[in-house]
Write a structure and sequence with these properties.
The protein has about 80 residues and is an all-alpha fold. It contains 5 helices and no strands.
């Protein structure tokens, strides 16, 4: 997940980290970054979409391990 978050750019990453790590609400984030609440919401939606897509891509590329039962069947 760290890679997915660090791949975010600029305000999108800042909004995500302030919301998820610092647990700030959108009003506090908007004041802190000088953005409107609507823009903060848009950045958060974008961040969630990008993080989810990156994690899905990583999971699809990861080699699958065979189930233990199917391995046992091969050696019998």
């Amino acid at each position: 997940m760290s890679y997915a978050v660090m791949a975010l750019r600029g305000d999108t990453r800042d909004v995500f980290l302030l919301s998820c790590v610092q647990a700030l609400d959108y009003a506090l984030i908007s004041r802190h970054l000088g953005l409107t609440v609507e823009v903060v919401q848009a950045h958060m939606a974008s961040a969630l979409c990008q993080v989810t897509s990156t994690i899905d891509l990583i999971e699809r590329a990861r080699p699958r391990r065979a189930a233990a039962s199917s391995l046992e069947d091969r050696h019998v």
